[in-house]
Each structure stands twice: as structure tokens, then as C-alpha cells.
Task: structure prediction
Amino acid sequence: MERDDRSIADERSLTERSAPVREGVGSRSSDWERVERTSAFEELARKKRAFIVPVVILFTVFFLGWPALGGFTTLLDGQAIGAMTWAYVYGFAQLATTLVLLHLYTRQAARWDGLARRAREEAAEGGTGA
Result:
């Protein structure tokens, strides 16, 4: 089934609107390249990676552990507190972990905002911050 000319025109229009806008001599892509070359941006990328990679690994292992342990072992079947099993304790621990990670990420993001601001300032000054 062929698409009609109208949908192709709409698709082209959308593509043209999402293309980088040229402003004066430079473009948004050249502005971005200037920001990328600053020392503040390199520090920002390094710090984000150092925080995000271990947190994602921890989060994934911890959250996939619950269905894996609950579905394939009897480890979580035992009584923890009264009639509550270890599966419930693990589930509540996941909620607590999510809230702690949310708090940590929010604090880190505020610090990253300062580095991003510094990278924009360095790029505007035309330096690499080295």
C-alpha cells in the first residue's frame, strides 16, 4: 500500500522543522562543538559517567534480583517479621532504594548544572578552559 502525497509532505515538513536552525555565522552544531571542547564539559561527562554507570548496574541487579530470587529459589519464602516473608522485605527495600537513588541523583544533577553552566561560559569566551 502506497502512502499518499500528503503524508510524505507532512513528513518532509517535520524533518525540515527539526533540522538545525542557522543563526548568524555559526550554527547550533558548531556551538555544541565549542561546548564539547571545554574542560568543564569533559569534567561533566566524566562525573556523570562515574555516577550513572554504577547506579544503573546496582539498580538493575537489585531490581531483577527480586523476581529471580522469588521465582527460582525459596530464599524469600521464609518468615521475616511475624507473618511477613522476606519477599515483602525485599519489595519494601526496593521502594527505599528507589527513593534514596532519587535523592542522590537530584543532588548530583544540581552539581552537574553548575558544570554545564561553566561549559557554556567557557564556550562563549572561546576558550577550552585548559
Summary: The first strand starts at residue 79 and ends at 81.
